[in-house]
Amino acid sequence: MLHPSSAAVPRRAILVIAAGLVVVAAIAATVFLRGHCADPGIATGSTLSESAPSVGNSNEIDILLGLARQATKEGRLVAPQGNNAYEYYLSVIQLDSANASALDALRETLPFASQEIEQLINRRQLDEARREIALLRDFDPTNYTLIILGAKLDAQQQVVTAEDEAKADAMRRRGG
pTM higher than 0.90 for the full model? Predict the structure, then answer.
């Protein structure tokens, strides 16, 4: 027979998580609105080096752009680690911070990469989702979608933790 308070624990955990999500969403909205109202002229990716573009080895840049385009065609936007379009484009930006091809590609593929990350979160592949969010934040740390995905990731992590704790508690009760 179930103890009456054992069913209340998961409900309380869910309520706490929901309240946390509301708070995180409010904070994210505030950050987003302040950032966009304060200086609407800031372009996506402005956190990258503000110095004059360094002219890198154009051959190396061409190779990286080719690898990035191939990865994009093959659907490897942010995974696997070390062999994906985002990492190649970010490498180009390190060599030439004003490279229009890389900046445009990063900007244009961000929504698609965000969708992939959301699917990872929904499938509870949280470590990979965390890595991919960090990768996209290298390009645009104030992106609203990434802030929301980060909040969703944190909420999903709390749900998984609460479920694991409930399972462990149930196992202790059976064993003890």
Answer: no
